[in-house]
Every structure is written in structure tokens, then in C-alpha cells.
Design a protein that fits this description.
The protein is of the alpha+beta class and 883 residues long. It has 28 helices and 20 strands. A hairpin with a 6-residue loop joins strand 2 and strand 3. The longest helix has 35 residues. The protein is globular and about 105 Å long.
């Protein structure tokens, strides 16, 4: 039988060819648009920060300006000078550099960025942009792990890094670092796709390690807590297989992360035990409102107010804070400190959340979003509701009954952490993954957005817009409007105008989403619809984020700083201020150049940590965690000054300067100085520097001192030391050791010769020839890691010597009579052992990555060679043998 292929009629060939070419054209267009959509998030991030990346502008506002720019520059200088700097002598009376976790001394990506040939200001911008790009990639990967398609997961890579809760963390880089790696932990815990357990451990342990090394162990702890809650929920729902799988991965990841970061963890714990947060002077107030100056109240600062949640729907629901004060929420008496300009995560994240409520598979992410909202409220717990209902509850703590209140009081060790707003990245990642799930579902041809939900949302935006219009044209504010010490008086009508623009923005975006669904929501154009929504989300968030990033022009800032007072060199400075320390003119007026005025004034006044850029030591500067001894000092100065006259207080501070080797002061007053540059008048802070007679050396030698048991570090003990400064002050050496040479020689005996051979950052060498016991005192804090060695120049024998705490704020070594070379160096006990453990753990991690990758690659090759549905070859029967 012969088979003949009958060709189709000639008339049908052009039609078939045109249909195929149209399908191919649609596929090519879909691939192109998906590629553009995949680059939307990184492109938006780069576009927002491009002037700063190129050095034309510099980031400003809050900690990124006055705290982390000089700090990371100083850490970079120190790491270039020595492979592992450990001590910082320029803050207060010295603090451990690694122990202050936010320094990120051991963080690999900080080394990478700051090794580039960039200025300090520009390097920090690259550091921030790098982690926003990391956040985009990790969020996209987490959404894919949780069941979204690869195309729909792209929207998570747009929403998460560009949401207000994450993008605004540019002002606090350590928290941005943790937010960048957080999606990896969430993706592993909430995953729905089958993954090799070894890959899960490798990825999760890396994420937890980098979060700790990057300076934010609190978010790493939060991630572990959320994962543990989900594991318990799996067990409660009798999904034992998932519970065991997630639990095994989490335990293995935590153990691996602890080994990989043990030097950082031990150093942080060592310093935290000596910090002001462990002081137990306060009574634990469970149900009463804590005082404003208490640690309990400080821990609840930066709580997100309930009325701020409207920012999830429209980006500027309450206006802007800078450079002109148009933040309308300051009119509300209960408003707390601002953590982020907006919570906005895009209009599609709202629709994704509404779509997700109808799907059982999304219950865990709805729980994550709900739990995050309850935790970030902080101060606004059940107590706040009761206080507003009746004045009978005025003494009840506002946080009582809230989720954060339960954590703070009843979770072991959590009272050493602070700020409920640190839970906001969990809200953002939850919304981002729900948006990717919603995009997956809405891309189906038969799906239609719930009409009631969309109509209700549109009507709400319209009502809000109409209400704001009425307020703008008919409301006349009465009474005194709030002012900000930097951004001036509240511009009510300017704020209302911004809210109007924001509502129009949200309405337009909502309309474009519905239009895209109607025109592209078919099976043929599914990829085009997904790409259109992703591009629209990127445009939506990038347009809103322009007002969230504070910058100043680099050339203008350089020109202003070149006109400031010349710096004088001193051993240690004391920052003082009159009034508020910043011009009162700022409170009374507004200016579009206020960000430049604030940034230049803070640099000139060494506000925050700007003294580190000039390598100058300041006694009373900002730190992430200050020591308990410094806290006791300021408490004691308040106690002593309260009962002293003006002349007595002046004498007290003169003696304190001599006691702590302070030989210069910096005064920042509330008066302003006017500077005109290129026809523009700026109001800058008035800063005065005064240097006293410098001391030849900060190392002091005493032949008379008092020896007491180890200090209890109490407020009363420090107050007694300050009161004794009025008279001739003998240093107090705290030690429990019995010293054979503690008996004093006669008054005629004295030091015969002393010479400071070397006075470095982490080591000091002194040659001493003495006929009686001598106490060598340095104005550096003894945190327990300073050690001393005595080398006898007579017989060349060595012996260890204890470094004692002197006057709670300084350190000292008691040297017996003789001819000695005294060496004092900073050498933590954990340094060698834990560094070796960490190095071995990192080597093992890299070996595990290679091993897991090789095994997964081998398994793929085996699947290609023997696909699951292929028939296995059968052995052929052997030929019969012939005889």
C-alpha cells in the first residue's frame, strides 16, 4: 500500500503561514517583554541612586549621613592598615570595634565594596545599591520557592526592594543588609517546591551568617523565630513530614551559622554584657506606662501607628517630612518617631493581598503579614485603646496586650532589643510573595478581579480625595502647629496637596492594572500581561520612591565645608551645646535647601560620628551600644550637678577634663551663621572649637592610689568618684588580687625614669625604672580584653600582669619596683580559637556547596540519560548453541 501526502489547497497556505508567523511574533514579543520585566527592578534601583552612584550627590538624612558614612569610612581605613582591627579608641573612652555589631568589620561584602577606588560617601551608596539588588534577587527566588512561576516571581523582585519599608532602610545600612538576605530564610521555611535538604541548609545558613556579620543579629533572630512558629504550626496541623523537614533544616542552619559567625557573636555578647542595656535600676513595669527616659520606653520607640497603615494603599497618605515639613500625622498627639517615610509596597501588592484571602494555599503568608502588622504596632497595643476609651486607664501602659509587649516581657533575652519597626521587612516580603501569587492567578484567562473589592477600593480613594479637597479649601488650622527642629514648621496645605497627588497616583495605577487585565488577560497574551504588570509595578514604586531618598549635591556640600573653621588637633574632645545645639532659625523657617544645611552643620559639629573622619577622639559621641560605665557617668553628673552652684559645676567639668585627658571642647549653639554661596543664602549651625594646653601624653604614672574590690558599677559609686575630683583625686584601682608590693614606700621615693616608647591604637609600650610600685593609667576602658606583660630589663624574664579597671572608665597596670619594659595590648581571649573555628566552618561550607552542586548536577545527567518514563533495555536471549 502506498501513502501519498495530499498537499493542502494553495488558497490555504498563505493563511496558515500568516497564523504561524503571528504566533511566532507573539512569542518573541513575550520573551522580550519578560526580559525587560526581569530587569525592571534593578533598573529602577539604579535609576533612583544613579546621581549618587556617580558621585554627583551624597545620601543624607538620619543615620546614613551622620553615623554610617563616617563609621564605615573609618572601619575601611583601619582594615587597610591591619587585617583585623579590634579596638576603637576614638569613641568615648574606647569601645571594641568588632563588639559594636553595626560596624560590620567581618562582613565580606563591606570588604569588597570598600576595596574599590571610591570616596567614602560614594562607597556607601554602592554598598546600599548592592544590597537592594541582592534583595531583588533573593525576593524573586523566595517567591519561586513558594510556588509562583518564574515569570510571576519577578514582581516580588520589584515590590520587595522598592517598598517603603525596605528602600527607606538606606538610612540604616545594617538593617538593609539583613533585609537583603531575609527572603532566603523565608523562602526555605515557606517553600512548596521540592528542594534538596542539603541545598536548603547551605542557603539558609549563609543568609543567617551574613545577616549577623552585616550588623543586624536581631533580624536574624526574628527570622528564626518566625520559622520556628511555622514549624510548630505544621506539627499542630499534623503535617509532621513538613515539620520534621523544616525543623531539621532550621536546626542545622542555625548550628552552621553559629560556627561561621562565632567570633562576631561572642564579641557582641561580651560587649552587650557591659552595655547600658543590662542595667537593672528600673522596675519592670508590666502594666504601667514606663517613664519616657526609661529603657522600656526606649525599646518601644519607632512604633508604627495604626493610621500609618493607610500608606499601604497610597504612598504619601500623610505627606512628606523633608526637606520641608509636610508630615500631617504630626498633628496627631500620639504620633511616634518616624521610622520610614511610607509603608507603600505598590498598588498590586494590595490587590495581591485581597486575592490571596480567597486561596487556602496562601494562609501562611497572610499569617506572616498579619503577625508583622501586630508586631510593628509596638506602643499601640490594647492599653492604647483603653487609654483612649476612658481616663480611668491613663496609667495603663499603651503597649500592654500588644504582640511586641508579649515578646519584650516574656521572651527570654528579648528585652535587650528595641524598636518594633524592625519587623517591617517581614511585612514587605509577605506582601511581595502574595503579589507574585496573585499575579500567577490573575494571569489566567478566566480570572476576573473581584468586582466588589475593586469597586470598594476605587470608591475609598475617591472619597479620600474629595475629603482632602474639602480640607484644603475650607479647613483653617487653629492653635500652634507642630514644628520639627530640622525641617521647620508644618506646612499643612502643602501636605494636603501632596496627599491629593498621591491619591491620584494610586487611582491611575489601579486603573492601568484593570486596563492591562482587560486588554491582555487572555491565554495568548499571558506573558505580555505578566510583563505589563511587573513594569507597571516598577514604575509605580519608582515614582513614589523619589521623595523617600534624601540627597545633597556633592559640589555644593564641598563648597560649604571648605568655609568651615579649621580643625585643631587634640587628644580628646568634649562636645557641648547651648540651646538645642542646632539653629533655632530652622524651627521657624522652611527651605528647599534645608537638607544641605543640616548635613553641612552636622559634619562641622561632629554630630553623630563625623569625628571619625578626622581621626579625632570624642568623649560624648553617639554609638550603637554605649557602655554601662558611660551611662553611669552621665547619671552621676546629673546627680552631682543638681546640688551644685554654677561655679562648682564649672570646677567639676574642669577637673573632669583633666581626669579623662580631654584637652579641647566643641560648642554647637542654637545660633546660626549665614553663608552665601552662588547667590544662595544658607543658615548653618554656629560651631566654636577651643583647645586647652595639650598634655604631653595620655599615659599617666601614679605612686599613690587606692585599691578596692571589683567594682559594682553603680550610680552611687560613680557619683563618689566625681565628688572626689574637687580635691586631689587618687585613682581607684579595682582588683580582687592580693599584691605583695601594695605597701607604699616613703614619700621621698619616686619614679626615677619613665618613657612611653609606643602609644598605638591597640598596644602601648613603656620603659619604666622605679624604686617603688607604680600604677600606669591610660584613659581607655578596660573591657576585659586588655592584657599586659612585664619584661625585666635586668634578667630579661617575662611575667604577665593584670590590667585593672581604674575609676570605672580607665585602665591601669600595677608595676612592682625595678627596671621594666611594660607592654599593654588588646588581645581578646576568643580571638585565636574562635577565628580558627570560624575559618574551618567557612571552608566546610564552601566544600559542602561544591559537593551539593556536583551531586545535583550528576542527578540531572542521570535523569537526562534515563528519563522517568523511558523503557529500560531488556537483555536479548542468547543464541542456541549448535552441536
Amino acid at each position: 500500500m502506498r501513502f501519498v501526502n495530499n498537499p493542502a489547497p494553495a488558497s490555504s497556505l498563505p493563511l496558515a503561514d500568516s497564523r504561524e508567523s503571528r504566533i511566532l511574533s507573539i512569542k518573541r514579543t513575550s520573551r522580550l517583554t519578560l526580559a525587560l520585566a526581569n530587569a525592571a527592578g534593578p533598573a529602577a534601583i539604579l535609576g533612583l541612586f544613579l546621581p549618587s552612584l556617580l558621585g554627583f550627590s551624597q545620601l543624607a538624612f538620619r543615620d546614613v549621613g551622620h553615623f554610617y558614612t563616617p563609621l564605615y569610612g573609618y572601619v575601611a581605613e583601619r582594615t587597610h592598615e591591619q587585617w583585623l582591627p579590634l579596638w576603637n579608641p576614638l569613641d568615648q573612652t574606647g569601645i571594641p570595634l568588632v563588639g559594636e555589631t553595626t560596624t560590620a568589620v567581618l562582613y565580606p561584602l563591606r570588604y569588597l565594596v570598600y576595596s574599590l577606588p571610591l570616596t567614602t560617601d560614594t562607597a556607601l551608596v554602592w554598598y546600599i545599591v548592592l544590597h537592594l539588588l541582592v534583595a531583588s534577587v533573593t525576593a524573586q527566588w523566595a517567591a519561586w520557592c513558594c510556588g509562583s512561576s518564574r515569570a510571576s516571581a519577578m514582581i516580588a523582585g520589584v515590590i520587595y526592594p522598592l517598598s517603603g519599608s525596605v528602600l527607606f532602610l538606606y538610612s540604616n545600612p545594617p538593617f538593609l543588609v539583613a533585609a537583603a538576605w531575609l527572603p532566603l530564610v523565608i523562602g526555605i521555611c515557606f517553600r512548596t517546591r521540592a528542594m534538596d535538604r542539603r541545598w536548603c541548609v547551605v542557603i539558609q545558613s549563609l543568609a543567617l551568617s551574613l545577616m549577623v556579620l552585616g550588623g543586624d543579629p536581631q533580624t536574624a533572630l526574628h527570622a528564626v523565630m518566625i520559622s520556628a512558629v511555622i514549624i510548630i504550626a505544621f506539627a499542630w496541623l499534623r503535617e509532621y513530614r513538613k515539620a520534621v523537614d523544616r525543623g531539621t533544616v532550621l536546626v542545622a542552619s542555625c548550628v552552621a551559622a553559629l560556627l561561621m559567625t562565632c567570633p562576631q557573636i561572642v564579641a557582641s555578647m561580651d560587649w552587650s554584657r557591659q552595655s547600658y542595656r543590662v542595667l537593672n535600676d528600673e522596675t519592670q513595669l508590666y502594666f504601667l506606662q514606663p517613664p519616657r527616659s526609661s529603657l522600656q520606653n526606649d525599646a518601644l520607640e519607632y512604633s508604627v501607628a495604626p493610621w500609618a497603615l493607610i500608606e499601604l494603599v497610597t504612598p504619601a497618605a500623610w505627606g512628606d517630612l523633608f526637606p520641608i515639613n509636610r508630615r500631617l500625622s504630626t498633628l496627631i498627639p500620639e504620633e511616634r518617631k518616624l521610622w520610614t517615610q511610607s509603608l507603600y509596597a505598590g498598588m498590586f501588592s494590595v490587590l495581591g493581598l485581597l486575592i490571596a484571602t480567597r486561596r487556602r494555599q496562601n494562609r501562611w503568608f497572610i499569617f506572616l503579614v498579619a503577625m508583622s502588622v501586630l508586631l510593628v504596632l509596638g506602643h499601640f497595643g490594647l492599653g492604647a485603646l483603653l487609654r483612649n476609651i476612658s481616663p480611668q486607664f491613663s496609667n495603663v501602659g499603651s503597649a500592654v496586650g500588644g504582640a511586641y509587649w508579649w515578646l519584650y516581657h516574656f521572651f527570654p533575652g528579648y528585652d535587650s532589643f528595641r524598636y518594633p519597626a524592625k519587623w517591617l521587612p517581614f511585612l514587605s516580603i509577605g506582601l511581595a510573595i502574595l503579589a507574585s501569587s496573585g499575579l500567577d492567578r490573575s494571569s489566567r484567562s478566566r480570572f476576573a478581579f473581584p468586582k466588589r473589592v475593586v469597586v470598594s477600593l476605587a470608591i475609598s480613594l475617591l472619597i479620600l480625595f474629595a475629603g482632602v479637597c474639602l480640607l484644603r479649601f475650607f479647613w483653617q488650622p487653629t492653635g500652634r502647629l507642630p514644628t520639627d527642629r530640622f525641617w521647620g514648621p508644618l506646612d499643612v496645605f502643602g501636605g494636603l496637596a501632596i496627599v491629593q497627588i498621591s491619591l491620584v497616583h494610586s487611582s491611575v495605577v489601579l486603573g492601568l492594572i484593570l486596563w492591562a487585565k482587560r486588554r491582555l488577560g487572555t491565554a495568548r497574551h499571558r506573558d505580555l500581561y505578566v510583563a505589563a504588570i511587573i513594569l507597571l509595578a516598577a514604575f509605580d514604586l519608582a515614582l513614589a520612591a523619589r521623595q523617600w531618598i534624601g540627597t545633597v549635591d556633592s559640589a555644593a556640600l564641598h563648597q560649604v565645608m571648605s568655609s568651615t573653621q579649621r580643625m585643631e588637633t587634640a587628644h580628646r574632645w568634649l562636645r557641648t551645646q547651648s540651646g538645642g545645639g542646632f539653629p533655632m532659625e530652622w524651627r521657624r523657617t522652611s527651605s528647599d535647601l534645608r537638607m544641605l544645611e543640616v548635613e553641612a552643620s552636622q559634619r562641622d559639629a561632629w554630630f553623630g560620628r563625623w569625628h571619625l573622619k578626622d581621626r579625632q577622639a570624642v568623649f560624648n559621641n553617639m554609638t550603637s551600644i554605649r557602655s554601662s560605665a558611660i551611662e553611669r557617668f552621665w547619671q552621676a553628673t546629673d546627680d552631682v550637678s543638681r546640688n551644685s552652684t554654677t561655679d562648682e559645676t564649672r570646677v567639676l567639668w574642669r577637673n573632669i577634663r583633666e581626669w579623662l585627658a580631654i584637652d579641647a571642647t566643641l560648642l554647637s549653639s542654637d545660633k546660626s551663621r549665614t553663608l552665601t554661596i552662588d547667590g544662595t543664602t544658607l543658615q548653618l549651625a554656629q560651631v566654636q572649637r577651643h583647645a586647652y594646653r595639650p598634655q604631653p601624653s595620655t599615659v599617666q604614672f601614679f605612686t599613690s592610689w587606692r585599691q578596692q574590690p571589683v567594682a559594682n558599677n553603680t550610680r552611687r559609686e560613680m557619683a563618689l568618684i566625681l565628688r572626689e575630683l574637687k580635691d586631689s583625686h587618687e585613682p581607684i584601682c579595682y582588683s580582687d588580687e592580693f599584691l605583695e608590693f601594695s605597701q607604699r614606700a616613703s614619700d621621698d621615693d619616686s619614679i626615677m625614669h619613665e618613657q612611653v616608647v609606643h602609644d598605638g591604637v591597640e598596644s602601648v609600650e613603656v620603659l619604666l625604672q622605679n624604686s617603688q610600685a607604680v600604677l600606669i593609667v591610660r584613659p581607655q576602658l578596660q573591657d576585659g580584653n586588655w592584657h599586659a606583660t612585664l619584661l625585666s630589663l635586668a634578667d630579661h624574664t617575662r611575667q604577665p600582669a593584670a590590667v585593672h579597671s581604674v575609676d570605672l572608665l580607665k585602665q591601669g597596670v600595677i608595676v612592682p619596683p625595678g627596671n621594666w619594659k611594660v607592654a599593654i595590648e588588646y588581645r581578646p581571649k576568643w580571638l585565636v580559637g574562635l577565628s580558627f573555628v570560624s575559618a574551618v566552618a567557612w571552608i566546610y561550607w564552601f566544600v559542602s556547596v561544591g559537593h551539593v552542586w556536583y551531586r545535583s548536577r550528576l542527578n540531572k545527567l542521570r535523569l537526562v540519560a534515563n528519563p522517568p518514563g523511558a523503557l529500560k533495555p531488556q537483555s536479548l536471549p542468547s543464541e542456541p548453541t549448535t552441536r
